[in-house]
Structure to design on (151 residues):
């Protein structure tokens, strides 16, 4: 699939109002992060608990954002409950410039095992499911911004 420019995804009207570009860009990334968290909640934390899986919400809390590189699966689960705090993600999004790449990724070392499965656990591809929604997320945020800005 060809990679479309951001303005090509939302329409030429967005080029006329820089604030609209910024709003659609940042709100779309924020919505993507929210949907990643929600999808993980649905696929993992709302399902019946397995005796071999201790639910700490560490995977959900390990979602990070960067404008330099994809966050790496590099941190071990502390084994105690963790409360997700997405303040770091909001800071990266709010400080991003139009055209800059924002990477969203998980740092929990075991994230790949959850996503792709193991011989003892089926795959739960929450990232792929949400990533497929990117164009519809942008379209929805563009419609919201267009109406809000009266464009």
């Amino acid at each position: 699939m060809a990679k479309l420019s951001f303005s090509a995804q939302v329409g030429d009207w967005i080029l006329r109002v820089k604030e609209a570009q910024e709003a659609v860009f940042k709100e779309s990334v924020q919505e993507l992060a929210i949907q990643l968290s929600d999808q993980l909640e649905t696929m993992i934390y709302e399902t019946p608990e397995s005796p071999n899986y201790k639910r700490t919400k560490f995977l959900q809390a390990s979602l990070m954002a960067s404008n330099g590189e994809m966050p790496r699966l590099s941190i071990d689960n502390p084994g105690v409950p963790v409360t997700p705090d997405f303040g770091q993600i909001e800071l990266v999004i709010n400080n991003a410039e139009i055209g800059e790449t924002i990477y969203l990724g998980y740092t929990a070392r075991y994230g790949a095992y959850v996503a792709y499965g193991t011989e003892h656990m089926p795959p739960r591809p929450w990232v792929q499911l949400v990533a497929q929604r990117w164009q519809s997320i942008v379209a929805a945020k563009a419609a919201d911004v267009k109406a809000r800005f009266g464009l």
About this structure: The chain is about 50% helix and 5% strand. Residues 15-46+55-149 form one domain. The chain has a mean pLDDT of 89.
